[in-house]
Amino acid sequence: MIVTVTPNPSIDRTVTLGSRLTRGAVQRITSATSEPGGKGVNVARALTLAGVDAIAILPAADTDPIVTALRTGGVDFRCVPVTGAVRTNVAITEPDGTTTKLNEPGALLDAAARDALTRTVLDAAAGAAWVVLSGSLPPGLPDDWYAEIAASLAPGRCKVAIDTSERPLGALAAAFRTAAPDVIKPNAEELAGLVGVSGDDLESAAAAGDPEPVVAAAREVIERGARTVLVTLGAAGAVLVDENGSWMATPPPITPRSTVGAGDSSLAGYLRAEVGGAEPPQRLQMAVAYGSAAAALPGSALPAPHQIDLNAVRVYAITPASTRP
């Protein structure tokens, strides 16, 4: 069982333009879709499509549209009742795949809802192989909530994966001594923020075929306590670093249609491979295959197993320049 936790779920509405987005202009939409979303929900959806036992935990009223959408999609879930409506996020995609996201802050969680969410996560973790904590935090949850949950889970048997950003990520990093996750999944900008370097420099180096700056930054995060760092790098692929090695995977050429859910799909691919017994390079390969497949799909659609092409993803071990002959 993989438990995903989405404290700030959403209905993800994606609108596709037939031309480049022009600020201040009136433009025509060529298509529009709405899907249940939030990063953890997306991970659960992708795992469910692959036949992996997963359950999504989220705060939502039983009558909320996201609950109806999850039932329709066959995703197992557990809701913590709240009075506010789940937010709606809007993604605008252009013909070249460029995506602009407009995210609402989310409904306020009062003290009772916060306590109920915490209890629900800890109870579900008792029978889980993985707990995945994903996304932003809604009003009412403190910045260190993920760190609090990770520290509570540390003595248990389940593994923990965390994918977040901004202040929740900073609070987590500050608590690595007691709350270090088994896997943390930053993108280049988020990783750069943790170690005080330029995200543009990390992305540029990786795009030019030099992953060593990314590896060095990830190694610093591991030295602080994280066990494995999975860094998603968009069209350049991804880098995986753990205490035993580092690897890079490059995706096949695709025609990008939407980046919504691509990072979440990458994490789902990694977890699917891990619970299947794959070694780190194969986990990375699956992660990149999932991420690239998601980017080639419209809106917030997530890839099914028949859309995954593992053989098209190249994986290689990264040898530090200081050890090369």
UniProtKB/TrEMBL annotation:
Keywords: ATP-binding, Kinase, Nucleotide-binding, Transferase. It comes from the Bacteria. Residues 22-305 form the Carbohydrate kinase PfkB domain. It catalyses: beta-D-fructose 1-phosphate + ATP = beta-D-fructose 1,6-bisphosphate + ADP + H(+). Its EC number is 2.7.1.56. GO terms for cellular component: cytosol. InterPro entries: 1-PFruKinase (IPR022463), Carboh/pur_kinase_PfkB_CS (IPR002173), PfkB_dom (IPR011611), Ribokinase-like (IPR029056), Tagatose/fructose_Pkinase (IPR017583). It is an enzyme of class 2 (transferase). PROSITE patterns: PFKB_KINASES_2 (PS00584). SUPFAM superfamilies: Ribokinase-like. One of its GO terms (molecular function) is 1-phosphofructokinase activity. PANTHER family: 1-PHOSPHOFRUCTOKINASE, 1-PHOSPHOFRUCTOKINASE-RELATED. NCBIfam families: 1-PFK, pfkB. Belongs to the carbohydrate kinase PfkB family. Catalyzes the ATP-dependent phosphorylation of fructose-l-phosphate to fructose-l,6-bisphosphate. This is 1-phosphofructokinase. It comes from Mycolicibacterium sediminis.
